[in-house]
Amino acid sequence: MIASITTYGGKKQSDGKHRRNGPKKTKSVTRVDTWQKRATKGNQEPRTKNQVNPISPKGDTSTATAVEPVDNFLEIAPKVNGSHAPICPHQAILDLYHEKLPQLVPVRVWNETRRRHLQSLWRGKASELKWKSATEGIEWFDAYFHFVGQSEFLTGKASGNGDRRPFIADLEWIIKPANFAKVIEGKYHT
Q1: CA neighbours closer than 13 Å in the CB half-sphere of residue 184
Q2: Which stretches of 1-111 are DSSP H helices?
Q3: pLDDT digits (tens, 9 = 90+) for 142-157
Q4: Average pLDDT in the 131-151 region?
Q5: Which of 66, 83, 165, 184 is the most interior residue, by most CB within 10 Å?
Q6: Nearest-5° angle of CA 72, CA 77, CA 82?
């Protein structure tokens, strides 16, 4: 896809607005949608925007990427920050989440933001705990999900304030860096 971006030469005025001073400049920029680039890895056919999302139990046609299964969980990723870390098995962690925390909100769409949060948490813990294989990481997530399941607040068992419904966490919420720190510190456990 080629898109053109139009800019104008000019300066920001004291009132905060840009004034159009100078010639109009147009740049041609080649843009490849990330969903299309990701789908054309190897010899695969490109995904179409209307392809059924295999993550969704309802079979919706959202454009979120499917979680690609990792054939070998013991595979080691290239060096990141000077150390090797096992590759993050997204699908195995999603399956474990659904198995250990069925009372929490199920994952129906696995988008780029969620993927990055999980990847970041995986790399941080792999580096901190010096995991040699993905199996060690899966065991750690098993213990983490068990810990989350013990919280009345995170699982929606605590009563809500007034007429509000109780809070129920989801995978994205418990793996976000700010929320993860609070969960590990026991802030939501009584």
Answers
A1: 11
A2: 34-39, 90-100
A3: 999 999 999 999 999 9
A4: 95
A5: 66
A6: 155
Tell me the three state secondary structure of residue 24: strand
For the chain, the first-to-last Cα distance in angstroms comes to 54
Task: Give, in degrees to the nearest 5, the angle at Cα 68 between 79 and 169.
Answer: 90
How far apart CA 186 and CA 184 sit, in angstroms, is 5
- Compute the chain's Rg from CA coordinates: 22
Supply the pTM of this predicted model.
0.58
One-letter amino acid for residue 84 of the chain: H
Q: Do the Cβ atoms of 174 and 159 come closer than 8 Å?
A: no
As beta bridge partners, residue 24 has: 8
At 112, give phi and psi (nearest 5°).
-65, -40
